[in-house]
Amino acid sequence: MAVHNDPQIMELAKTHPELMKLIEQHEKLDKLVAALDKRHVRTPEETLERKKLSKMKLANRDHISEMVAKLKKQQ
Question: What is the mean pLDDT of residues 16-31?
């Protein structure tokens, strides 16, 4: 499930700007990866860029998960 499709996460993001910023970054990275995935043939540089973006996206997702867990504990 995409981050922006999770109602609990989006509800928390409404009152936590830092979380919203992370979600927006995640969506941007997702779009960049998807654009590279649409190419039938990628240059070696594009392949490396895709790997880099995927790692950034995963790290961003982990950060979102950590923040959500922290915020849920505070409630």
Answer: 96
